[in-house]
Amino acid sequence: MVHANGTDLYVERRGGGEPLLLVQGMTGHSLHWGEPFLAALEEHFELVLYDHRGVGRSAPSDGPFTIADLAADALGVLDVLEIEHAHVLGISMGGMVAQELALFAPERVRTLTLGATYCGGPGARFTDERVVNTIAMALLSGDAERKIRTGWEFNVSPPFATADGNFERFSQLAAQYPVALDMIMAQLQAIMGHDTSARLAQIGAPTLVVHGSADQMLAAANGEIVAGLIPGARMELLDGVGHLFFWEQPERAAQLVREHAVAARA
What we know:
- By secondary structure, the chain is α/β, with parallel strands linked by helices.
- The chain contains 11 helices and 9 strands.
- The protein is globular and about 50 Å long.
């Protein structure tokens, strides 16, 4: 546990090499990265994993917050660990946090990888109303397995969702630290207020945008918008892959992050 930006956050460090800060998405905690993805990364980076305020093993949180507040948490983690600058990988809501971090503290970000994320503004597409309503009904049902399964089915592609063993592996992790409904709503409120579209041109860090073409949570068009607004950003579209692309293609996702870091050193 570290005390960062006024709150106590759970942090892990593993691997060796240049630091890579991993920022999870909505309701995600450090276990949600999945061991195959982390194992492929830790051979090349010192991984810094943390749980958002009120999530996983971090301290409970009350009151509303913004994406910028969560970015201040991330910066606080780097400060406490005395990491001067790091590669930053943000997924979904974590990608929004990473955008704000790169804008607020550009000198701390070596490279930026934004996965399956959204910037708000003109043309941006939020989650389809049908998907939102189905997930909301599952959350309100009180049925823990239904909540996890519904989220799973919308976060990965249909072939991956039904393949033997995939849901079982995910559900074992997801069930360990369930997120309270009020925290889910607080995160959703923060996401709804997120709009960096007019500021993304200020990002100077080498940026890679990764998106699955079958993403049902945030359509791939959002990734194209983000990549188009950040100077020099490159878009990598993974064909037939859902929102949790690092679960569906962990080796490929880790390879993209590694190659992006190497290219930035050249």
